[in-house]
Design goal:
alpha/beta; five-stranded parallel β-sheet; two-stranded antiparallel sheet; 7 strands; binds flavin mononucleotide
Length: about 200
């Protein structure tokens, strides 16, 4: 049976734009993977701990030894390892991921455990699997706004792509909902565009 890990990152819960589009992605994935189990984690409601001194020391301990300081990390990594598909729904906060998603990344991207440091660079230790990233933003970052304002910086999508690739997850699909706070018409158009991209990647059955 397929297991889908669904991470929600918005502080706005189910009403969030990213959360709503992620539900559509999960519904579509469930059509393609009948009987899939959905494991849902709301990172905003239950944020992972921030890195502290104990964690920083523990990750440099002998490979294979799981210090108590790594218990949360270990649980989150095992949850990710068990997933056949990953769906991350997130707002853009200050051109990047919200702090709760960064906290999750810091728990799961771990030397000796999810990546190895080799002379050729970092290599991922997890098997590749499809991952979906749904990003909602108040403005535009993939290009200029419809009124011609220059695109905002985007540290979010390259960052998520880089950290997932670091641990071995390369099969990333990105759906963006841009300009969603600029009125209902703009939000509707953003959803329509994201649905077209979803249909292309995962046709309705
Ligand atoms: C702290 C904070 C920072 C934000 N930074 C950006 C930003 O850098 N660029 C942008 O386009 N929108 C930014 N926004 C707007 C959100 O991306 C926008 O409200 C989006 O709809 C939130 O997605 P959600 O509905 O899924 O939570 C920010 C919002 C907050 C609360």
């Amino acid at each position: 049976m397929t297991t889908i890990l669904h991470l929600r990152c918005s502080p706005r819960g189910a009403a969030a734009f990213s959360s709503r589009m992620a539900v559509e992605v999960i519904d579509r994935l469930s059509l393609h993977h009948r009987g899939a189990e959905i494991v849902f984690r709301d990172l905003s409601a239950n944020p992972p701990p921030l890195v502290d001194a104990g964690f920083s020391a523990a990750i440099l301990g002998p490979p294979g030894e799981v210090s108590p300081a790594l218990e949360v990390s270990e649980a989150l990594i095992e949850e990710l390892e068990a997933a056949d598909v990953l769906v991350i729904a997130t707002p853009m906060h200050n051109y990047c991921v919200p702090a709760v998603l960064k906290a999750w990344v810091d728990q799961i991207v771990r030397i000796h455990r999810t990546f190895a440091s080799t002379p050729g660079g970092k290599t991922g230790k997890l098997r590749d699997r499809p991952a979906w990233l749904v990003v909602a933003s108040g403005g535009w970052f993939s290009g200029p706004s419809p009124s011609g304002a220059p695109a905002q910086p985007d540290f979010l999508t390259p960052y998520v792509r880089a950290v997932l690739a670091t641990i071995g997850i390369h099969d990333l699909h990105i759906l963006t909902l841009e300009g969603v706070t600029r009125g209902a018409d703009v939000a509707d158009a953003a959803f329509t565009k994201a649905r077209v991209a979803l249909d292309r990647a995962l046709p309705p059955l």
